[in-house]
Design a protein that fits this description.
Two copies of one chain form a homodimer. By secondary structure, chain A is mainly α. Chain A has one domain: Arc Repressor Mutant, subunit A, CATH 1.10.10. Chain A is 60% helix and 12% strand. In chain A, strands 1-3-2 form a three-stranded antiparallel beta sheet. In chain A, strand 2 and strand 3 form a beta hairpin. In chain A, helix 4 crosses helix 5. The two termini of chain A are 34 Å apart. At the A-B interface, helix 1, helix 2, helix 3, strand 1 and helix 4 of A face helix 1, helix 2, helix 3, strand 1 and helix 4 of B. Chain B binds a DNA duplex (30 and 30 nucleotides) through helix 5.
DNA sequence: CGTTCATATGAACACTTTATCATATATTAT
DNA sequence: ATAATATATGATAAAGTGTTCATATGAACG
């Protein structure tokens, strides 16, 4: 253990703090990571993602499934799209959304594990 | 494929929607999950968690390390504590925080994988 | 005991975010 | 073309969030 020092001017545990500082990811990555989790941090979007785990769905399906207005779903899908969490394809008047990759599944899974303790 | 129906009154793809509906976790779990990710969705808290991946730290250490005021750190630690993401122990005037369990590490890791694509 | 240091808490304010409403775009059918 | 359907977009209002400031608590020590 290193010597405690005054908090407002010196590190209390300077050695430890320096070690940790060197292990921290780049500021930008930490910021992006927070942005990503922010996207997961809304129950409407979580529901959309869970629905898309099972099947490709059009906006209308999602709207009915969740009991959320089409407009709200559309807005949230845009957020998910901007974070590359979902992709879409057009088929006539419908636009079908699906998960962009398998990270979504893992992230949701890890989160659910924590909840279920 | 099932027959498309009018969106505002019937499911567009009723069969699919029903299948998905049965696979959805309980409303409450989805809500809790969103709450959990909301906690990860702030860069100050993300930084705190990453710091705690490496070592147990007191509030002052964290404050210095991140260049964030003691008050702000304290407020955020409370949020993390309320979500059972961190635990703490007192040692004299210091209070040392550490990660509550290993889910944090996995969640952060999965998220970072997505970012790094 | 009173002081100092480490941390916590409450209120206030600025900033975001989300749903809603009205409207626009795009596709298909008549 | 016109109408109808599916989805997207922009503005607005309401709710939520994070930081700061001022202050409180709690421990150690002369």
């Amino acid at each position: 253990m290193d010597k405690p020092e005054r908090c407002d001017f010196l590190y209390v545990h300077q050695e430890t703090v320096e070690k940790v500082q060197n292990s921290m990811p780049a500021e930008e990555d930490l910021y992006d990571l927070a942005e990503l989790f922010k996207v997961f941090g809304d129950s409407t979007r979580i529901k959309i993602l869970y629905a898309l785990l099972e099947a490709e769905l059009c906006v209308c399906d999602i709207s009915q499934l969740l009991g959320v207005s089409q407009t709200a779903v559309s807005h949230q899908l845009r957020v998910l799209k901007n974070s590359s969490l979902v992709k879409y394809r057009r088929e006539g008047k419908n636009i079908f959304y699906s998960l962009a990759d398998d990270h979504v599944r893992s992230v949701l899974g890890q989160g659910m594990d924590h909840i279920k303790e």
